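To the wet lab folks,

You asked to see what we're planning to order before we commit. Fair enough. Below is the target structure as tokens, and below that is the sequence we designed to fit it. If anything looks off to you, flag it before the synthesis order goes out.
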């Protein structure tokens, strides 16, 4: 029972920390945008709204993939294995931008996908399923660990 609480506390802490960081980054970006406006500079916003929503979810999913690895192998052994999701993300980014004609092509495609509204629901449901599966796997691996 104590192990379950420790594992769930770590997952909850990670999720809450992610949310706090996303909110802090958003607040800082609003402050910087307002500051540019006060001083008479025009600030070009180069990132669309769908990308702003997509990126935090993507990084939270990467963490959800990494957490069970840490619980299964321990920190020392999982250090190398936990780099694989980031490497896959970078490789996927290079492939997507190469096929879609750069970052603007990727943003345009994402905007088209998110235009209907159904994508938000589908991504939200997939996100919750991944986080739940990560939590369950982390808990199962943590229970089997020997200390």
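Sequence we intend to order:
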């Amino acid at each position: 029972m104590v192990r379950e609480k420790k594992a769930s506390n770590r997952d909850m802490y990670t999720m809450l920390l992610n949310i706090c960081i996303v909110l802090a980054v958003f607040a800082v970006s609003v402050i910087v945008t307002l500051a540019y406006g006060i001083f008479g500079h025009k600030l070009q916003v180069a990132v669309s709204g769908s990308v702003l929503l997509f990126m935090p979810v993507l990084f939270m999913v990467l963490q959800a993939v990494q957490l069970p690895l840490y619980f299964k192998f321990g920190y020392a052994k999982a250090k190398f294995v936990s780099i694989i999701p980031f490497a896959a993300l970078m490789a996927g980014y290079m492939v997507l931008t190469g096929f879609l004609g750069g970052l603007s092509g990727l943003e345009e495609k994402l905007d088209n996908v998110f235009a209907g509204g159904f994508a938000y629901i589908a991504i939200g449901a997939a996100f919750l399923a991944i986080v739940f599966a990560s939590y369950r796997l982390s808990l199962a691996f943590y229970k089997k660990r020997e200390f």
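Structural context that might help your review: DSSP finds five helices and no strands in the chain. The chain has one domain: 2-144.

Thanks,
Computational group
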